[in-house]
Amino acid sequence: MFSDEEPILARVRDFLVALDVADERVLVAVSGGPDSMALLDILCRLGASVAVGHVHHGLRVESDEEAEFVRRRAQQYGVAYYQRNVDVRGRMGEQGESLETAARELRRVALREMATEAGAPYIATGHHADDQAETVLMRLLRGAGTRGLAGIPPCNEEYIRPLLQVWRSEIDAYLRDNNLPYRLDASNASPEHLRNRLRHQLLPLLEADYAPRLRERLAHLADIARADNAALEQWAATCYQQYAQPTPGGISLPHPLQELPEAVVRRIWLQALAAVRGDASDIGYHHLLAITALKLGEETHLPGAIVRYEYDRLAFLRPETDIEMENCVLPVPGVVELPSIGVILNTELLAQWSGFPGGDATLVDADAIVGELTVRSWCAGDRYQPLGAPGTRKLQDIFVDAQLPRRLRARVPVVCDEEGIVWLAGYRLADRVKVSRKTDKGLLIKIEWEFNPWTLRNSADA
């Protein structure tokens, strides 16, 4: 137990115990500033297994001295020191990012590399309660919803934030009482950055004239929003697992999901976009409104994704999803691969057979085939007489009746001979090549799909 004179130690210890990381090795991200220096000291006093990770951004003349300062402090604590030098301005030029964004992305990569080198499954940062309040206010001004108002999470992925319930004034007092040295970054006082203006101008004004203890209220708002958001996210995740189906180039979802609240539906969409793009953190309210406004047959282009309203489904797709199937000869017997659509076709001559396969295989009267077999994609105007049909039908009409989206129609192989269509793969054989009692030799055609476009509709109805 710790005495009442050491409340920060007790809170940080309880935080580590609650997350079940008290016995894990932690890389402490130490910039040399007051917050990270206090965090390093607290974790060392608690006996945590720590290593120090310092990212040298090379943006200020003081950067070399700060790196050396952190290295010496790590040595004094008797803990391992790791350092990564990053080229922020170089990334800005290559990626067209702002200085802040480039530094943040490079810092994340560097910290993960150092954590791996240190054998530390967790990275501890010095974010505190004032950071939380500022973040919530900043996001509120930008029009954030529940997800944004949840603020900085106590932990996400490998990151933990043991000081998130500790106020800046408490950290300052801890540093002063324990005579701990630190370095100040002059840019933290510059009004050029929005966060600094909030910290030094807006928040003091609001607390003085409108809302005393506003920082505390904003931090509480983050706690409430985070709990509410977690419940909605879990609900959405359960529904996503139920409804989402893989489709070439992305994810398909029923639309509309009328039985679900709008808050859950939008989170399901965000999960689909994250699956397609790798991340959906930059998808905003206006992007979601664009999806909501889609009418049947329309599409909207979002950053790194296309969303199409196809029949009663929404397809969330990577931009490069349209394909062209290669035309080729189908040997008899033999095998042909169509890598552009993920299909393998196999033919086999049979002297005897029992039953009549369907779906992924068909049985043809081999003597009814005229010339060689070929495989191609469908063309406008294509028509044939499916087995048992009273007359010919356009493939276009067959696709429409099956509610097969346009982008998937090119993924259905059309097997032909010199007289026309023999088999619309996965659908029905042509009536003119059906087997009968007079058939002496059967031809079995099988198809293996990486993705069977016909099943999208069938599984949705199941």
Average pLDDT metric: 89
Helical fraction: 25-40%
Widest sheet, order of strands: 3-2-1-4-6-5
First-to-last CA distance = 59 Å
Topology, number of strands = 21
Structural features, described:
This protein is α+β, with helices and mostly antiparallel strands. It has 15 helices and 21 strands. It has helices at residues 7-18, 34-45, 63-77, 88-95, 99-118, 129-141, 146-149, 168-177, 194-209, 214-243, 262-277, 285-292, 395-401, 406-409, 453-461; strands spanning 26-29, 50-56, 81-85, 122-124, 155-156, 159-160, 245-247, 250-254, 299-302, 305-310, 313-317, 328-330, 334-338, 343-350, 361-365, 373-376, 383-384, 393-394, 414-417, 420-424, 442-449. Strand 7 and strand 8 form a beta hairpin. The two termini are 59 Å apart.
Sequence-ordered SSE layout with sheet pairings:
Layout: H1 7-18, E1 26-29, H2 34-45, E2 50-56, H3 63-77, E3 81-85, H4 88-95, H5 99-118, E4 122-124, H6 129-141, H7 146-149, E5 155-156, E6 159-160, H8 168-177, H9 194-209, H10 214-243, E7 245-247, E8 250-254, H11 262-277, H12 285-292, E9 299-302, E10 305-310, E11 313-317, E12 328-330, E13 334-338, E14 343-350, E15 361-365, E16 373-376, E17 383-384, E18 393-394, H13 395-401, H14 406-409, E19 414-417, E20 420-424, E21 442-449, H15 453-461
Parallel strand pairs: 1-2, 1-4, 2-3, 4-6
Antiparallel strand pairs: 5-6, 7-8, 8-11, 9-10, 10-11, 12-16, 13-14, 14-21, 15-21, 16-19, 17-18, 19-20
